[in-house]
Design goal:
The chain has 542 residues and is α+β, with helices and mostly antiparallel strands. The chain has three domains: 218 residues, no CATH class; 112 residues, Immunoglobulin-like; 147 residues, no CATH class. It is 16% helix and 34% strand. A hairpin with a 5-residue loop joins β25 and β26. α2 packs across α3 and α4 packs across α6.
Length: 542
């Protein structure tokens, strides 16, 4: 009996030891715990509820998230060993409230994001939205990440960054400018879908088609080989779709739906795409000899009948340049377009300010071209000019207007309209004169005798006479001639040398029939040095 009991106790001891070793991971055939890393992110086509995120390496799923929350947030636990590889994040299912149409419960199509190997650590963010989807599809189609991002930036005007956690554009929240901008740009795709007459659910077809279009590096409605791009439902992508995206971005930015609190100077200049389509016309912006800049900017608008591709001459075009700013958005002086008889129209805009000053954005310039009831919109980037002064300003003394912040002295704008030499060696200097009609509408009409403006009481103030004098030495003053529509010309100027910097001085006096007032640089009474404005000029070398 004792021998049998001893044997049984020995067996139990050995079995217990084995179980302890197995439980600690020791012994043959053990399976150590796999290390993993938790990553968070946002699914954004609007805050998406119930989307599952699948993470893949070379098409093989390595992790899957739980469904996203009602703010689009998700968490996915990824094997740490997989983080060294390039990853694709892809959504499955979910619903969202569409931001532009305000339709709720829209079924989410597939969105995706490409994440380079070695870039994720615990707590990293991966936002999955329309921008990241287009880039991922370009990479899947054979582009390098760098090439895909370059193509995207060239088409949409920015480079997406899926590491940024976005702030939803339709919700006011405490967030950074970068986060708000990410949300606003995502909302622009919703707005583009609406503007193209598509349903919210068709946004995902559109995103796929945009990626197909951009596969040749250009967003223009065709891909490699000149093949036209169509959505799965058979809708063709137009060749001005990049221009339409820029318009959609600004449409949403200026709408009541936008709660991002981003003012126009914070959104970055929309891409300046020079082709736009209306129902009847193809309208193209053709730059002049130099790019748009503060001061005089000349260009042509080419109009083609879409029905037969013939030049659309004989049309009445109107222009509306408008600067969207954080405060005091405004227009700028311009000429009426001139029909050249070949489907092109010569245009001149006198820009009162540039898009940026010392690298800081001032806002967004919009140029709307209208023919009848149809309009096309462009977003020119207005630069600054080096060398010659293209714009100077004078101020009224008692001549005032009522502005948004109260009474202000009227500003008179003098634009350099051209400096030319003559056979006898003298020069002719031309000036374009404009002013603020009043401070409430922020319009800037050209001024000539008979112009009806507004005074500080917002009642009519009629210009009965204008006198302009020009000098190169502040001693000899040459009367300028009124050429009409704000244009003035002073001839016979001496004291300038071709290729050598010089100065031209301009005096301006304006009367309303009761008071004749010489304008000054500072709005105070005329003194020794404030009764004229100065243009720094360098006559062209002969």
């Amino acid at each position: 009996m004792k021998s049998a009991l001893d044997s049984t106790l020995k067996y139990i001891s050995i079995l217990g030891l084995s179980l302890i070793m197995f439980g600690c991971g020791g012994g043959s055939g053990s399976s150590p715990t796999t290390a993993s890393t938790s990553v968070t992110g946002t699914v954004l086509a609007g805050p998406t509820l119930g989307a599952v995120v699948s993470v893949k390496v070379n098409g093989v799923e390595v992790a899957k998230s739980t469904p996203s929350l009602d703010n689009g947030a998700y968490t996915v636990v990824i094997p740490t060993a997989s983080l060294a590889s390039d990853l694709t994040f892809e959504t499955i299912g979910g619903t969202f409230p569409d931001e532009a149409s305000e339709e709720s419960g829209v079924a989410l199509g597939t969105l995706s994001a490409f994440v380079p190997g070695g870039t994720l650590t615990a707590g990293s963010n991966v936002t999955i939205d329309p921008s990241s989807t287009i880039v991922q599809k370009l990479i899947a189609g054979g582009m390098t990440r760098s090439a895909a991002e370059t193509a995207f930036s060239g088409a949409f005007g920015y480079t997406p960054d899926c590491s940024v956690k976005p702030a939803f554009a339709t919700m006011s929240s405490a967030s950074t400018t970068v986060q708000r901008l990410a949300g606003l740009r995502a909302a622009a795709f919703s707005q583009l879908t609406k503007d193209l007459g598509l349903t919210p659910a068709q946004q995902f077809e559109l995103i796929q088609a945009l990626a197909d279009d951009l596969s040749d590096g250009v967003l223009d409605g065709v891909k490699t080989g000149g093949t036209h791009v169509f959505m799965d439902s058979g809708i063709e992508i137009s060749d001005d779709v990049a221009n339409r995206f820029a318009l959609s971005l600004m449409t949403f930015q200026t709408s009541a739906l936008n709660k991002s609190k981003l003012t126009p100077d914070k959104i970055g200049t929309p891409l300046f795409v020079k082709t736009a389509l209306t129902p009847s016309y193809k309208i193209e912006y053709i730059p002049g000899t130099s790019a748009a800049a503060m001061g005089k900017s000349s260009f042509r608008i080419k109009v083609t009948n879409r029905s037969d591709n013939s030049p659309a001459s004989g049309k009445t075009l109107s222009l509306r340049p408008f600067m969207y700013m954080a405060t005091k958005s405004h227009t700028t002086p311009m000429e009426d377009p001139v029909d050249n008889g070949d489907g092109t129209y010569s245009c001149t805009v006198y820009y009162v300010m540039s898009s940026a000053v010392n690298g800081m954005s001032m806002g967004v310039w919009e140029l709307k071209v209208t023919i009848g009831t149809e309009s096309a919109t462009f977003y020119p980037i207005v630069g600054t000019t080096a060398g010659n002064d293209m714009l100077t300003k004078l101020s009224g003394i008692t001549d005032s207007i009522m502005g948004m912040a109260g009474m202000e002295k009227r500003t008179w704008f003098l634009f350099n309209d051209g400096l030319t030499d003559t056979i006898d060696g003298s020069y002719t200097f031309r000036v374009f004169l404009a002013t603020k009609e009043n401070g409430m509408t922020l319009s800037f009409p050209a001024v000539t005798v008979g112009s009806i403006l507004k005074n500080q009481s917002n009642t009519n103030w009629t210009v009965t006479s204008i006198a302009m004098e020009v000098s190169t030495d502040k001693t000899t003053w040459v009367p300028a001639t009124d050429l009409g529509n704000g244009h003035w010309s002073a001839s016979g100027l001496t004291g300038l040398t071709a290729g050598t910097p010089g100065r031209i001085y301009v005096k301006l006096s304006v009367s309303d029939g009761t008071v004749t007032e010489q304008k000054t640089t500072d709005g105070t009474a005329v003194g020794a040095a404030n009764g004229y404005q100065t243009f720094n000029v360098t006559p062209a070398a002969q």
